[in-house]
Amino acid sequence: MDPVRNPYAPGAGQRPPELAGRDEQLDAFDVVLERVARGRPERSVVLTGLRGVGKTVLLNALRSAAVRAGWGTGKLEARPDQSLRRPLSSAVHQAVRELGPAGGAGDHALGVVRSFAQREPVAASSGRGSRSAPALRDRWNPGISVPAVSGRADSGDIEIDLVELLSDLGGMASDTGRGIAVFIDEMQDLGPEDVSALCAAAHEISQTGLPLIVVGAGLPHLPAVLSASKSYSERLFRYSRIDRLDRSAADAALERPAAEEGAEYAPEALTAMYAATGGYPYFIQAYGKAVWDRAPGSPITAADVEVAAPEAESELAVGFFGSRFERATPGEREYLRAMAEVAAGTASDGEPEVDAVPTSDVAAHLGRKPQSLSPARDALLKKGLIYSGERGLIAFTVPHFGRYLREFTSA
């Protein structure tokens, strides 16, 4: 097959040629936008799922829907070592610019964004129990020409400032007859204070009915992160679990792009592809690309899938799995391998591995006390390689990671 015409796109956050199996989320978001535009009460949205299921792709698709509806939008990616203040300022600055109100309310909103962006958080001083006063950081310019608005979003307390910022922006959006949507990827990496502030701001916005929503995406334990911050977070967000595609959607993700190029799959090839990919969108694109390049012609057969599978697996081992494994220290890799072995030991004939394993079983497999393994486990949690959906259980954030560890790595 002509590699130049290969339609598949195995890239991080790169939209596939066919966004299959996500119509439910797209349709629900259109309803949210319309309800908010009409002043109806509605919750912000949180997408959760493993890596490789297409959360970022879907997040971008939802943003495109908001843009088509005439909303102002901005997007940021949370990082564990970065405060929310500056990236959020850039995101909402873009949203205000997209709405385009000149002078008056628009300038006021930009001035509030600037005051929020430039305000340093309150920091403890060397005095006994005292705290230093907030100070404006003049070295960083958010790219806003209007002066900062004194007395709004500039207290230095992130919760107070974020409530004031989003309230003022929501009011400005209401005046224009449109709305603002802020999209946050890797939301689980927000710091505790930022999570608390975001929940408080979302709560305030929902009570006032202003046309502003937050759309977040993160790993499966994100709801627990939000709930630990504010007990009412369960009622603030509409949670949507993004999972692997079912058979019909997975087939569509392969067949429709191929049909656009005049090619097709034999039924047994589609069966082989689903068995290899497990229906995970990233794997579908990776295997689809490899199979297309290896297949001599159309229709693509199960034999073509068998020939191309090692190439796809090798590519995933380096780019998808290996890049994450390399981030772990030797002690952390030992812990990951133990998780993989424990998970494999729980699977019966013909049944898949369990999603989560007890930390006590991992410790027993290594012949160690659970407390001695806490540093490795905590480091892996912070690196986003594993997550804990409930107390005492841990799981990989990447599908098929256990199989990769058993087949491609050695102690």
Automatic annotation (TrEMBL):
The molecular function terms in GO held by this entry are: ATP binding
The protein's matches in Gene3D superfamilies, at most eight in alphabetical order, are given as:
P-loop containing nucleotide triphosphate hydrolases
Q: Which domain of life is it from?
A: Bacteria
Query: What are the alphabetically sorted keywords of the record?
Result: ATP-binding, Nucleotide-binding
User: Which InterPro entries does the entry mention?
Assistant: AAA_16 (IPR041664), P-loop_NTPase (IPR027417)
Orc1-like AAA ATPase domain boundaries:
18-215
Region annotation (Disordered) maps to 1-23
- Name of protein: ATP-binding protein
Q: Which organism is it from?
A: Phycicoccus avicenniae
